[in-house]
Write a structure and sequence with these properties.
three-stranded antiparallel β-sheet; Cytochrome p450; 10 strands; alpha+beta; globular
């Protein structure tokens, strides 16, 4: 699979490969790099859902790699974050951030999201070519999560660059350097906010650290980094993938343009059709586990291919068809179980607002290049476009 992520054909459309693997066996051993070791790849829906919620599949990367040695120098705030932990630590950390992502909290921020969206679309010239990724899908989620965390406006471009570099597949030195840059930045921002407190989410986390909620300084920095990175990377891909899916299905796009009130209900199908997270983050078996008909030994990494599971015909008939009337709420694009994406409500709100604005202001929008000319990000973890050239039309 590592080689596949560098194959332009797989990057453009991984789903035939996933379908062939799932048809052969929905859980199978695959080679991991050049080490000679194997991981297990899960491509079936039922098996993926089980794997995501099975407590015998640990996310404690520190425990897994403790005795294996590595030349990597990821900053601990990136390597050992909330996503890479199990209960009870995960339960305690997640509880501290959950309130920031409630329906009420999202509703309060919707006017700001709409304001930012309109300001970004104001820069789009009518009747000309625009990169939807650079012109909306990247800056909108960055601005929103930075606003939520209290990151100063002037720092946001650099923060976005470091975050993108954390997903630079095949470039371990760049990833490691970016992990230190973003962690050092958040450490400095935390120190600055202690001197001049505000009312951002980061300020509230600092209060938890300095109060009685048992949040260590290392955990504080790690949570801040995780929220910053996870808070916009996947949403960027969601926006780009959803827009592309609609542009490739003009009838569905036109239906949403005429009936924008249907957009919120269509988001689950758009997420299912082309998941912004291709493969879930690292897990390993703490004891032998049977997924489907496959027994996986203890101490082995397990990769859950969310994009493949969302195209399983056993769960979603005619899975390669985009059907906005499909009941797709059970998709796995936000994960499942205790690690389900805490920021899902924000991602949905941003996609809803952005798609409404695009279809309202540019009803004749269309692709500026053929789909096989699109440039996809070269990474196994997330699935997203490096750019999406479109032609605007009022």
């Amino acid at each position: 699979m590592d080689n596949a992520t560098q194959d332009p054909r797989f990057l453009r459309d991984p789903y035939p490969t996933y379908a062939a693997m799932r048809s052969a066996c929905p859980v199978q051993a695959v080679p991991t790099g050049s080490s000679g070791h194997s991981s297990y790849l899960v491509t079936g829906y039922a098996e993926a859902r089980q794997a995501l919620s099975d407590p015998r599949l640990s996310k404690n990367t520190a425990a897994f790699f403790a005795d294996k040695g590595s030349r990597r120098r990821l900053h601990p705030a990136v390597a050992h974050n909330m996503l890479a932990s199990d209960p009870p630590q995960h339960t305690r950390l997640r509880k501290l951030v959950t309130n920031a992502f409630t329906t009420g909290a999202v509703a309060e921020l919707r006017p700001f999201i709409a304001q930012v969206t309109d300001a970004l679309l104001d820069e789009w010239p009518v009747g000309e070519q625009v990169d939807l990724v650079a012109g909306l899908a990247v800056p909108l989620p960055v601005i929103v999560i930075c606003e939520l965390l209290g990151v100063p406006e002037g720092d946001r471009p650099e923060v976005q660059r470091w975050s993108a570099e954390l997903f630079a597949a095949g470039k371990p030195d760049l990833i490691d350097a970016a992990s230190h840059a973003v962690a050092d930045y958040m450490t400095g921002l935390i120190a600055a906010k202690r001197l001049r407190p505000g009312d951002s989410l980061l300020d509230r986390l600092i209060s938890a650290r300095d109060g009685n909620d048992h949040l260590s300084e290392e955990e504080l920095v790690s949570l801040a980094v995780l929220l910053l990175v996870a808070g916009h990377e996947t949403t960027t891909n969601f926006l780009g993938n959803a827009a592309l899916a609609l542009l490739q299905h003009p009838a569905e796009l036109e239906r949403l343009r005429i009936n924008p009130e249907d957009i919120p209900a269509s988001l689950d199908e758009l997420l299912r059709f082309d998941s912004p997270v291709s493969t879930a983050t690292f897990r390993f078996t703490t004891e032998a586990v049977t997924l489907g008909d496959t027994e996986i030994p203890a101490g082995v990494p397990v990769m859950v291919a969310l994009g493949a599971a969302n195209r399983d015909p056993e769960r979603f008939p005619s899975p390669d068809q985009l059907n906005l009337e499909r009941e797709a709420a059970s998709h796995l694009s936000f994960g499942h179980g205790i690690h389900r994406c805490v920021g899902a409500p924000f991602a949905r709100a941003e996609a809803d607002i952005a798609l409404r604005a695009i279809l309202s202001r540019f009803p004749g929008i269309r692709l500026a290049v053929s789909p096989d000319q699109l440039d996809w990000r070269r990474t196994r973890l997330v699935r997203g476009l490096a750019s999406l050239p479109v032609l605007t039309s009022s």
